[in-house]
Amino acid sequence: MTQPLAELAAYSSPFPWYQAPDADLVRLTAAARVAGHRWDAIAAACDSGPGKDVPGVIRQQYWISPGTGPGPLFSATQRAARNLAGCDAGGFPPLTWPCPGCREQVTDLAPGGRPVHAELGHAAGCARLAADQAADDALRREWLPRLVLHSEDPVGAVQRHWLAGRITDDCPRCGWHGYFCHHLATIGGDWARTLCDDCYADLHPGITVTVKFFSARSGASSEPFAVIRQRDRSDHDYPGVGHVPDTGQRLDLAAVLGAHLAPRGGGARRRR
Amino acid sequence: MEEAHGGADEDIAEISRAEAEQITAGLAARHWPPEAARLPWVAAAYPQ
Questions:
Q1: B18 and A CB contact within 8 Å
Q2: Domain boundaries in chain A?
Q3: Domain segments of chain B: what residues?
Q4: Which of A65, A164, A256, B20 shows the smallest number of beta carbons within 10 Å?
């Protein structure tokens, strides 16, 4: 274990990020990122929670993180950075670290996702970013095929695969982040850029997709807090599930989406 | 026309693609560094 990870893990169990002082949490996670650790690796190395008891063979089969995953650590670090910046700083300040490859200051947008999308600020041609992306590609190419029960015949370059269980991932084409419940799609057999099922429909020559856009606004505010993209598909006889492309709000939009999708039973007003 | 349900007060309104791109760009600029404008889903409201 490298120095920043060991120092972070030394804080009390089960989750050191609840115990570490704000300044230490921000400093040590940034140092771990400089040293080349992904957020999920940092969280796993410091996690002595109950998830450690899940047998390794089960974790590998279902791609289960041994603990809580990197989300709580990332959020705790964001809160720590905001505490250090002061309440007047507004929203969450960016989590940054100096890239040892290109010497630029890099901002992590999220605890996961493809490095080319989640690490902003690298100089063009940065070797560290290339290495991070290559490692992410290799991980996906190794593990994602193992999560598939059945693959449909390719339609042109696009092919749909049935998952053995639900996973959380990002679609690199449309920016949606969330559960991939049943399907993944590949283009040209490339498992490093697996797409969501709506992007599969976009690219399928036999499926017609109709897209609508909606703004979501709190009743107390004149400013929208999200854009919802809804795709209705000719192969589905029900309205499309709206997607919210990630723009960093870190909001739970389930209520809004639920209202939009189920106009008889939701919790929001839909204006026409 | 307005349909009201439940107790939440979020408003959902259909908008144009241009409006969607303008709002998305504004949200990304508020929460993320300027380079985020180049992310595919921020640069275009619908994937190409």
A1: no
A2: 3-98, 148-203, 209-261
A3: 15-48
A4: A164
